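Q: Given only this backbone (226 positions), what sequence would you predict?
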């Protein structure tokens, strides 16, 4: 499994909680060997070599004039036969590369624990009506790619999870790889950005469905590679 690393936890948080490829490894569990590529330094895997790709979150926006953004879009478009999963920035990058639109939302930050309605059942999912997952984003997909279906939504995030019809690819705006402890540390590190950080911290004490979404992703890779 190739992990396209598009950002790192801020400050010293990676020392305590690991980097995003580490978090992805814990999310999908044993049996998936993770090889990471720092795309911000121009490192990309060869296409059609790995069993799957995962694209991490990032402090960058897909609209930023960074030298690695356009090559990432090109890689996503070229990876049409390889199972691919995008998380947060990865979700946005896939949407933008494949015909959608992403902007810095006038709604502002989404952070803390959020509940998303499951509106489409996919073969790699178990039956459920909603999932509660940590979120941390300002940007949002505002127009979904033409060959995609909405899998999960909320009033704040209408395109919270997408599945693609023309390629083996799925993506999530929320963060199933975040533990409550890391999500809280991230809020504390950015507390000035939130009007009520204590409420966001408290929300993360509620039960979450990160393990369930981790099973979705594991099943997706297993089924598309079978």
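A: Predicted residues:
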């Amino acid at each position: 499994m190739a992990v396209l690393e598009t950002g790192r936890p801020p400050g010293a948080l990676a020392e305590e909680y690991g980097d995003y490829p580490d978090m992805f490894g814990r999310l999908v569990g044993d049996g998936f060997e993770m090889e990471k590529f720092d795309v911000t330094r121009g490192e990309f895997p060869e296409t059609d070599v790995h069993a799957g790709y995962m694209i991490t979150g990032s402090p960058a926006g897909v609209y930023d004039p960074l030298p690695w953004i356009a090559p990432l879009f090109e890689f996503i478009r070229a990876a049409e036969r390889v199972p691919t999963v995008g998380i947060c920035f990865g979700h946005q990058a896939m949407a933008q590369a494949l015909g959608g639109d992403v902007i810095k939302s006038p709604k502002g930050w989404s952070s803390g624990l959020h509940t998303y309605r499951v509106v489409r059942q996919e073969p790699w999912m178990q039956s459920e009506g909603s999932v509660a997952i940590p979120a941390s984003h300002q940007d949002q997909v505002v127009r979904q790619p033409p060959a995609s279906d909405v899998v999960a939504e909320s009033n704040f995030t209408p395109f919270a999870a997408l599945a693609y019809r023309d390629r083996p690819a799925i993506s999530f705006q929320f963060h199933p790889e975040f533990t409550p402890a890391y999500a809280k540390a991230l809020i504390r590190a950015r507390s000035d950005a939130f009007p009520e950080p204590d409420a966001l911290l408290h929300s993360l004490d509620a039960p979450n469905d990160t393990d369930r979404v981790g099973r979705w992703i594991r099943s997706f890779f297993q089924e598309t590679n079978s």
